[in-house]
Amino acid sequence: MLPTALTSLLVSILGVFIAGPDSEHRPQFDPSIPSLLKLELRHLHAVSPDARVLFSDISIPHSLRVQGNTNTSYTIQPRSIKTYRPPSFDAYSRARTRSLRFGQSESLDWGEEDILGPDVERREVLLELAKMTNNAYVEPEDPAWYPLDQRWNTSHRFGWEPDADGFRGRVFATPDNSTVVVSIKGTSAGLFGGGGPTAKKDKLNDNLLFSCCCAKVDWTWTPVCGCYRNGWKCDQTCLERALIDDSLFYPIGTNLYNNLTYMYPESNIWIIGHSLGGALASLLGVTFGSPVVTFECPGERMAASRLHLPSPPSTHHITHVYHTADPIPMGTCNGVLSSCALGGYAMESRCHLGKSIIYDTVSNLTWPVDIRTHGIVNVIERLLSEPWAPSVEVGREVPEAKAEVDCVECYSWEFGDFPVAK
Ligand SMILES: *[C@@H]1O[C@H](CO)[C@@H](O)[C@H](O)[C@H]1NC(C)=O
Ligand SMILES: *[C@@H]1O[C@H](CO)[C@@H](O)[C@H](O)[C@H]1NC(C)=O
Ligand SMILES: *[C@@H]1O[C@H](CO)[C@@H](O)[C@H](O)[C@H]1NC(C)=O
Ligand SMILES: *[C@@H]1O[C@H](CO)[C@@H](O)[C@H](O)[C@H]1NC(C)=O
Ligand SMILES: *[C@@H]1O[C@H](CO)[C@@H](O)[C@H](O)[C@H]1NC(C)=O
Questions:
Q1: Is the pTM value of this prediction over 0.90?
Q2: How far is CA 295 from CA 129, 193, 304, in A?
Q3: Which of 41, 117, 273, 406 is 20 to 30 A from 130 (CA-CA)?
Q4: Any idea which residues carry the catalytic annotation?
């Protein structure tokens, strides 16, 4: 059946990376180009059924038992980028709560910083990052999971199947811990088939965050919230309340990030992710000012505003990489007969924060629009492994990253204050 096949393709979402500069230098030393970062796999991370963030350490003998691909280290060319950080997570959360509860905006004292981020103009960098988000190759046997707050006393039994549900991923670090990369993949057992204790909730949240109005695709759908009114009207307040009441999506990410900064207090943390994991990575990038690279991420701009995330002066430290044949980032996986709808999802959002590197595979490679092009393996093997001719022609390695200005989504809906008629 279709939904099962879709499940495995669509599930990748969350990941974490850790890395740091090392002593290798490029052959011709140019002080303006930072030296290569060599990242090695340090931990796996996952979310337990009771929504706690769990880690598992990867020891060297452990990683040698990894099947299939034994490569657990990656080399990335960094470059200097500008980012904005809130004064503290507490200050950020306070401003967010104020906006959420009382509709008041509070100006935050954003700090501008120059830090090392991945050089997203290079194809090799995108390829390495994409490989780091693909943890399907690494299946350690029986990892010992621990929650950070009881680190030395508990060892949880917890599954690690590549297509199991929930956010999970890997943490990479440079040998000196200066750079840490978190990859985030998968979510929502729900996301196309599957099961699991949080699946139902995740699916609900995905539909709240990435559909226009409660995933009411048409009259045959049972909507996930009751905020739609007659004539394509949607009650904004109701929508935001539904999200806040139920969503674990964003808090799981902020817990993960806060746990990582506890483990690596001095490190420069990057966040990468595929699909919904990319969306979570981006929201964390907005929150913490970390460099972010996502692959095939659904439009997350609407989710950021529904979650009332205070917005930094610029989000250009966030880069999305996707191609036009994938209906998820394009926001076209939403017809009643679409594969997403068949899986119980309405992926209707299409606008992204930050900048986007868009490969026009429909025009240039004549790929048909198909959910099966969404998988990270497809992106690695069929898109990033080869030079991209249209870019090479103009002396670039990858398409130019551009902000999605004038992006419009959910235009058939009218959002506003539409209380239920008594
Ligand atoms: C780690 O995250 C959990 C939530 O999963 C939180 O309760 C805990 O306080 C965090 N620990 C640290 C040290 O940040
Ligand atoms: C592992 O890395 C080496 C060198 O970095 C490369 O030659 C080899 O093809 C890689 N193996 C796999 C399975 O990717
Ligand atoms: C671990 O937890 C058990 C009971 O929960 C307690 O008796 C034991 O002292 C703890 N061990 C350590 C090292 O904290
Ligand atoms: C890097 O961080 C880990 C904690 O995850 C620590 O065990 C290790 O000693 C650190 N290495 C360096 C070089 O600081
Ligand atoms: C794809 O791009 C290359 C380089 O610009 C061009 O030569 C080729 O004709 C394009 N293919 C299609 C089908 O448009």
A1: no
A2: 9, 21, 18
A3: 406
A4: 275
